[in-house]
Amino acid sequence: MKASPEKIAFLKASEKVSFDKEHRETINYNISKYDTAVEKGQKIYSNIDLARSRAGYLKYKVINDLDKYLIEFEDNFTKNGGKIIWAQDSAEAIKEIKKIIKHHGLKKMVKSKSMVTEEIELNAALEKSGMEVYETDLGEFIVQKAGQKPYHIVTPAMHMSKEDVAELYTEKFGVEPNLSPEELTLFTRDFLRKKFIESDLGVSGANFLIADTGSIALTENEGNAMLSMSFPEIHIAISGIEKIIPNMEDLDLFWPLLATHGTGQQLTAYNSIISGPRTENEKNGPKEMYLVLLDNGRSNLLAQEKQRQALSCIRCGACLNSCPVYKNIGGHTYDTTYSGPIGAVITPYLKNFKSYNHLSYASSLCGKCTTVCPVKIPLHEFLLLNRNDAVKKNIPPFMEKQANKWSTMALGSRNLLDMTSGSTKNFFGKKFGAKAWGPRREFPEFAPKSFSQIWKDKEKK
Q: Is 219 exposed, middle or buried (CB count within 10 Å of its CB: 0-12, 13-18, 19+)?
C-alpha cells in the first residue's frame, strides 16, 4: 500500500518549513508571547487543576449524552424564535445556507471568526455564487486578503510579522508602506465599519451552545462578532454538534478557562449570549436567525469508545502552542482546518482515516499537549490509539510492517542482539533505517558491545 498524497505532501512541507529559519523564528516569537501571557493569566486560579477536572468531566458527560442535550437545545432555541438546520456534511450545510441567501435575496456578508466555517470552506463557496464576503476578525481579514488559510486556531495570522502585514496592505489597498500595527488596525476598522452597515447577512460560529436556554455563547476580543450579528437583517450561526454545555451557569467555568488557556486573559473583552432573533420589544439584532448544526464526521469520532473524548475540545489552541512539532512545522503544513495535536487526533475521523492517519505520527509523544489542555483530553494517548487503529485497518505500507516485525523480533531478544557485533548492527541499521532517519541527521552508531556483554565481561574480571 502506497503512502497517501496527503502524507507525501505533509512530509515535503514539513521538511521545507522546518529548515526555514525566518519562518520558525516568527512562529516561536509569537508563541512565546502567548506562553508568557498564559502563565500570568492562569494565576487567577487558586486550584486550576480542579477547574480543569470539572470542565473535563462536564464536557465528557455531555459527549456521552449528546443526543439528549441536542434535543433539549433544539427545543429551547426554536421556542426563542430561531430556526435550526441539521447538516450531515459540508455540502449539505453549504446547500442550506445558499437556500437562505436566495430566499432573502442577500448580497453582502460579514463574518466573525469561526473555525467551523473554515472547515466547510464557506467563503469560497459563497464567493463562487456571487456573494461579497468579508472576514471581520483582524487576523482572519489579513489571511483572507493574503489568499491563505488560518494558520492557528486562535491566531490566524501567527505566521506573519508586522512587516509582512504592512507589505500586504500596501499591495492590496495602496496604503503607505511600513505602517505601524496601530495604523494598520485603524485602517482595517474604518474599512470594515462600512461593510457592517452595508451587509445584509451576518455569519458567526459558536463557542458554546447552552442547552437549558437554547442560546449561543460567543467570546471575542474585537467586537466584530457583535457587529456581525446586530447590523445585518439575517444572522446565520454555524456550529459543530459537540459544542453543547448543559446550563447557562456553566459559562462561569468555561469562559475563564477558554480565555486563560487561549490568550492569557482573565476573560476575553466581549462575551455575548444570543438566544434568537430580535423580538418586538427590541430595536437591535437580526430579523431572522438560523443555526446550522454540523456533523461532518463528528459521528465517526463519537463512535470511538475512547477518542470521542476529543470532542470535548473548546478550541483554546493551548496544545498547539505547547507542541514541539507544531513549533517546527507550523500550521499550514497540516493542510487541515484543525492542526497541532488536537487536529492530529480528530482529523482522521472528520475527513478520511486512510488519507490523514499520518498526522497521528507527527508527534514526539512528550505529553505536553495533555498537560496544558483545559478540559483534560489525554491527547498523546489518543495519538497512540489512532496509530493502533491504523495498524488494525492495515494502512501502513508493507515494508513498514515488515520492518516493525523484524525489528520487534530483534530488539525483543537479548540473544539475537548479543549474537551480532556492533559493525553488523551498524551495517543493517544504516541499510534499512537511514532513509527513515532522514538525510539531514547523522545515523547513530551502535556500540561495539551491548550493555549485557560489557556487564558479563566485567563480572568475569
A: buried
